[in-house]
Predict the 3D structure of the following.
Amino acid sequence: MNVFRDGTPDASRPQPLSRGGALDGLRFLAAFCMVIHHYSAESPIPLPRLHPVFERGYLATDFFLIVSGYVMARIYGQRVVDGRVGTGLFFLRRASRVVPAHLMMSAAFVIAVLAATAAGVRPLHPEWFDWRELPGQVFLVQALGPFGGKGWNAPVWSLSALMVCYLAFPSLWRAMRRIQSPVMAIALGLLGLAAADVLARRFLGYPIYQMPMQDGAIRALPLFFLGAALAICAETLIIPRWAAILLGLVSFGLLAGLQAAGRYDFLSVTLIAAMVLAAGAAPVRKPSKILEKAALVSFALFVTSEFVRVIYFGVDHALSARFGLGQTAQWAIWFGGLAVAVLFAVAFHYLVDWPSQAVIKPWTAKAPALLKRGLAGFIQVPDPNFDPFGTAGAGGPRVREILLQIGPRPGAAHRRAAERRPELGWG
C-alpha cells in the first residue's frame, strides 16, 4: 500500500491491491452466495418465499465472474502489459491452479457413486450422475457447446467458462489498458455487457445474465471483462476511504431493495460492480487475517460445495424419511449444511489443495524452459555461433559474397551510364 512516513494511507494515489480487506471478504461472499443458491433446493421452505432475492440466484454466479475478472486484472494486469506474462504462461498458471482441485473432486464423485452403488444405495436423482456426461465435465468443456458435462459437480461449469476468459484475457487486457479515463473504462464495460445481452436475447433467446450451461462461455466473457474494466478504474481513480465505504453500503442496500421491486438484471449487475469497485478502492488500514484466509478458502468452497451437498443432504433425506423430522429440525440441518460446506472447504484447502499446489507451482515455473528444451530435440535449431555474414573461412567464400554474385552482371554500357549519374544518398 502507498503510505506516508507516519504510516497513514497515501490518499493522493489509487490504492494497490491489498490482502485482508473488504475485497477479500467480497471474494468469500461471492463463493458463499453461490453455495446458498445451490443449497436452496434443499431448504424446508423455498427460499424465494423469504425474500425475492433468492429467485435470482443466478446473480451470485454473475457476482463471482465479475470478482474473478477484477482480481485477475489487479494481480496480473501490469505483468501482462510489461510482457512478463504472455497468453500461454498466464493460461498455464491459471489452469494449474484450478484444474488439479477440479480433477480431485471429480474423482471423489466417482468414488462416492461407485461406493453407493456397491452398497445398494440408489441416489435420489440418478440423472445427475449419468456416466455419459462425466467426460465433458472432467475435461471442462461443458460451457463450450453441446459436449455434455451435466450433473455431477455441476457448479464447475463456470470453471469451463473461465478457461475461455483466461485465454482471452492477456490480449484484451493490453487493448483495454490503453484506456486512461476511468469513466470511459466503466462505460465500455457496461456498454459491452448491455450489447452482449441484446445479442444473446436476439440470437439465443436468453438474457446474458442467465443462460444454459452450454452457453456459459458466452455468458462469462462480458461479466469477466466488466470486472477487468473496474480494475482499470481502481488503478486510475482516487476514491477516498469514506466515499468507498459509502458507495459499497449504498450499492448493497439498493441491490437488496431492487430485488423486491422486480427483475432488473442490468441494474443489479451495475450495483454489484459498484460494490466490487468500492471494496477494491477502500484502503486496508488493519489487514484482517480472517478475511485473508476466507479469500483463500473461497475457491475450495466453490469446488467442493456440491460434493458436500450431495452427501450431506442425501443423509438428511434418509433421516427425515425414517424419523419424520419437524420443520425446525430440518432448518437446523439445512443451516448445518452451510457450516459443513465451509468446514469441508477449509479442510480441503489446507490438507489437499494447498499441499498439492506446493508441488505443482515449482513445475509450473519450470514448464516454459522444459518445453523449449523438449522442442529442441525435434526442431533443428541453427548453430548460434555461425555468422552467415562473417569472414570467409577455409571452407569457401562468405555467404555475403555468394549473394552478391547472384543475378546478371551489368555490362560496360551500364557501368558508364552509372558513372555519369549523380551520387545518390541512401537513408
